[in-house]
TrEMBL record:
Residues 51-97, 118-167 form the Alpha-D-phosphohexomutase alpha/beta/alpha domain. This is Phosphoacetylglucosamine mutase. Catalyzes the conversion of GlcNAc-6-P into GlcNAc-1-P during the synthesis of uridine diphosphate/UDP-GlcNAc, a sugar nucleotide critical to multiple glycosylation pathways including protein N- and O-glycosylation. Its cofactor is Mg(2+). It catalyses: N-acetyl-alpha-D-glucosamine 1-phosphate = N-acetyl-D-glucosamine 6-phosphate. Mg(2+) binds at residues 64, 276, 278, 280. Residues 178-283, 297-434 form the Phosphoacetylglucosamine mutase AMG1 domain. The keyword Transmembrane helix does not apply.
Amino acid sequence: MDLGAITKYSALHAKPNGLILQYGTAGFRTKAEHLDHVMFRMGLLAVLRSKQTKSTIGVMVTASHNPEEDNGVKLVDPLGEMLAPSWEEHATCLANAEEQDMQRVLIDISEKEAVNLQQDAFVVIGRDTRPSSEKLSQSVIDGVTVLGGQFHDYGLLTTPQLHYMVYCRNTGGRYGKATIEGYYQKLSKAFVELTKQASCSGDEYRSLKVDCANGIGALKLREMEHYFSQGLSVQLFNDGSKGKLNHLCGADFVKSHQKPPQGMEIKSNERCCSFDGDADRIVYYYHDTDGHFHLIDGDKIATLISSFLKELLVEIGESLNIGVVQTAYANGSSTRYLEEVMKVPVYCTKTGVKHLHHKAQEFDIGVYFEANGHGTALFSTAVEMKIKQSAQQLEDKKRKAAKMLENIIDLFNQAAGDAISDMLVIEAILALKGLTVQQWDALYTDLPNRQLKVQVADRRVISTTNAERQAVTPPGLQEAINDLVKKYKLSRAFVRPSGTEDVVRVYAEADSQESADHLAHEVSLAVFQLAGGIGERPQPGYKAAETTHNINNAFGPGTADEHTVPKQCCDGSRSFAKETRALKMRSAVASHRKLIMIN
Ligand SMILES: CC(=O)N[C@H]1[C@@H](OP(=O)(O)O)O[C@H](CO)[C@@H](O)[C@@H]1O
Ligand SMILES: [Mg+2]
């Protein structure tokens, strides 16, 4: 380690005084202008991690669904997964070290992790379309180079494409070719093979409207579309030619506001979907003939996928264990449907895909999705081999099912949730099963729900257990929530400190939108009173409703307030549900009566 060179170059990427950032659920995220030193230092850290693991490490420059002015960075571990937790701590230490402490921190990390400094290092870098991303990724490269690491800069990539590249490079090409062409070819070949097998189609034309959030997804989907055009025609909206990244569009906007994005004209019953800013999340939606908006979120995507996989396994005659992994945000109706109707075991983990991913790895086939549309399916190596064999050996119908499963396995991005890959999986399943978007939506009816956020002086006063569904501290909070939940039917509520913003999130679910709204408000008040609320008391009518563009994993001076956008009013999004869903809900409520109540 040339400590002199590190000190010299580090001074060119100086840390702003007093700024403290934390490696959160999705790496570092804050205003782009505060990130130069973090990028340089993550270049250094990626080299150490690469030396330690003797593998290629990825660095992705993106702030996903955050506003265009923000940016962020995260490291990708050898099998394309999120950085190991102990290294997240190193990342936080290194990012916050004062200039004079940099050498010591680097040596500390190397010693603690027994890094062989003589080992070669290789780092691959990708970035999204933000104006700040190119310069910031150059700072990553500076960090890599000064520690003597080799690198390959992929330039513009979606986040899951970078995860794919890392996975390919560390598995000797068995997973696929580590080029953008390799990615397009692997996925498209599997998709075209699958759709060729579809004899009937629920929708007359296989066409789909895609809102690309004015982000990288537009560029990559445009590059890719001719590879799979035989099986699907896509119409791109919010492709970055005029609108601002993530502004009033994208998966996060659609999910949290439960309304369509701007810039997309939707005719009734047309199938539409939205990507987020770095194309690792996807949600579907449509307008029914009465003009009502229907959202199909990650929970319903997981249901479609797992039921299809289960059917194929039955057809092949294989009894492999398949599990679905969700978080506490999963709609209660989805969990119930999966467990009681589909008879699939469901597990709940903490928020953040790294938790879901790890749990999903425990099954032969693990399907995981966050409600916001981030997820994928994982297949154990043994399953992949078994299915490959079956696709060669079995007869007729069974063989056809095994072949389908083989292609589906290739179509998933098993390194990370991937909007493009998930979109193709969903389109293939709908075509193969001859399902329309309405039929898919009708699998179950979501319980009305509400998400709010509350500002407190220090969100760390809230600690949770049981996959974040129960608050352990501050004292009295969980008891207060229990009492409130008892007042409503089919109700459930929980609170947790966000890992990406300086807020406490509140989630409530009940038999009607009014009840869910009331419960969420009352729980917000309990948080405000018992967990040190600051600013205005939560008001009914959702002044403190979830907004799309709030960030904060910063604790330092000049960070918290600066990055919190003014609270917006939510439009009570599901008001349409009041009249039109009354009927549907009655039957959902009736069937829920059989359930053991979570309250
Ligand atoms: C309720 C919710 O959607 N939370 C999101 C959000 O995490 P929070 O820890 O809730 O801020 O950002 C994460 C990273 O993108 C994502 O994994 C997660 O699902
Ligand atoms: Mg994202």
